[in-house]
Write a structure and sequence with these properties.
A hairpin with a 5-residue loop joins strand 8 and strand 9. The protein starts with a strand and ends with a helix. The chain is about 50% helix and about 15% strand. The strands form 2 sheets. A 7-stranded mixed sheet has the order 4-3-7-6-5-8-9. It holds the Pfam family Redoxin.
């Protein structure tokens, strides 16, 4: 998985896009009279409002999924954005704020430059991840100590959750994943425990009464090494063709998981 340390690469691309929009807009404005400062402020405000609008519209479009976990609405790291809504909000705000004092052309060109970098960077990252990370050929073990190759799940969409019993976010998201496993028979869910013994995993499963299927042991964290995952929990979404479709670092909410599953099938 392509990342910058513990940070998802897509978040880094978004921050760079913000910077490009701000610097480009300011560079197109002559110095003096505070015009560059005002132009930069309009660009930043437009980008922040775009994020807010993109989030709110996404939540409204998936309201039933969010109602069961209202706090997930403000969990921005969980993902979930309506891109077209963000673009419309940014454009509308920029047009409104540049109707008088602040020059319109530099603001719009700055926003366009940032959006172009984000789009190109995002598509390139997606293509690179999909080409470079196939379904791992690692052979794990089931809870009875028998070999369990991940390639046995090829041919269907597969969700691989990397987790550990000591990981708080892993434990919190487990009921959401358990419910999804029962509800989506067309998708194989694999729970690859990282570095723990069968006894530790069985004790956790029994105490939580989760009823999970396909709980496997990855004693050497081989899946993390092969996919480049940097933190737990990490959830990998593979298509039926065995290619990586999406990655989620951190705790999953029901809303985000359901969105990912709809896109996967």
């Amino acid at each position: 998985m392509i990342s910058a340390g513990p940070f998802p690469m897509m978040a880094v691309i978004a921050l760079v896009a913000f910077a490009i929009a701000w610097f480009f807009a300011r560079a197109l404005v002559p110095a003096g009279d505070g015009l560059r400062t005002r132009t930069g402020a309009v660009v930043l405000d437009a980008l922040l409002l775009a994020l807010l609008g993109a989030r709110l519209v996404h939540v409204l479009l998936h309201a039933p999924d969010y109602l069961s976990q209202p706090l997930s609405i403000i969990r921005l790291g969980d993902g979930g954005w309506s891109i077209w809504a963000g673009v419309l909000v940014a454009a509308a705000y920029a047009l409104w704020k540049t109707r008088a004092v602040v020059p319109r052309k530099p603001v719009l060109l700055g926003l366009a430059a940032g959006a172009a970098f984000w789009a190109i960077g995002g598509m390139s990252l997606f293509a690179l991840q999909r080409a470079s990370i196939p379904l791992p050929e690692t052979v794990l073990q089931d809870l009875q100590g028998q070999p369990a190759p991940l390639t046995a799940f090829a041919g269907k969409p597969v969700v691989i959750n990397l987790w550990a019993t000591w990981c708080g976010p892993c434990r919190r998201e487990m009921p959401v994943l358990a419910a999804a496993q029962k509800a989506h028979a067309s998708v194989d869910f694999v729970f690859a425990n990282q570095g723990e013994t069968a006894e530790e995993v069985i004790d956790f499963l029994q105490s939580g009464q989760l009823g999970l299927e396909n709980v496997l042991l990855d004693a050497d964290s081989a899946v993390m090494q092969q996919t480049g995952a940097r933190a737990l929990p990490t959830t990998l979404f593979f298509g039926a063709d065995g290619r990586l479709r999406d990655v989620h670092m951190g705790e999953l909410s029901r809303a985000t998981l359901e969105t990912r599953l709809r896109e996967l099938q």
